[in-house]
Amino acid sequence: MKKIIAATSLVLVLTLYNYPVYDDKKITFAIIFLCFVVLVFSIAKLYSPEEKGYDTFEKEMDSLHTFDGIFQYTKDGFYFKQNKETEFIKWDEIISVYSFIIPSPFDKKQSGLEIITNEKCYEFDHKVTPGIVKLTDQLSSNLPTWELDSLSVRINNFGLEKTKLYEKRLA
Question: Of all residues in the chain, what percent are helix, strand and coil, respectively (each to 5)?
Fold first, then answer.
């Protein structure tokens, strides 16, 4: 691409330098116009981000669904490591799981998962928690009544929205 830009620039400079030499001014205008068109499209192609094809997107999603990140999964629950501490959450200790969205003045939105147990409440942000996609998959397969069609509820005036994904049914 850079070779095309260099060659087109050279042709354009030579054409502008020898402008009065050509007998027909239409040819000169056509050469200049074509050089500008080639330059504009070449520079746009050079500086535009590459489009991802379906295969690239599929590979990226497969890697996200298999990447453990800060989590380690067992039959009874999962471990996660945050701030140099490792904690274990059992599947049967989880009382509820919520998806949350917080509007931010600096970024579009902050979103993540909130897991509530008898002991503690844990929040995992989608952007900063490595392995959260696989965590969501593991939660949906290990918790019996996972709800994907729940309504989002606005919690406060700042725009916090929560969606209930799981709630333990007490007998």
Answer: 40, 30, 30
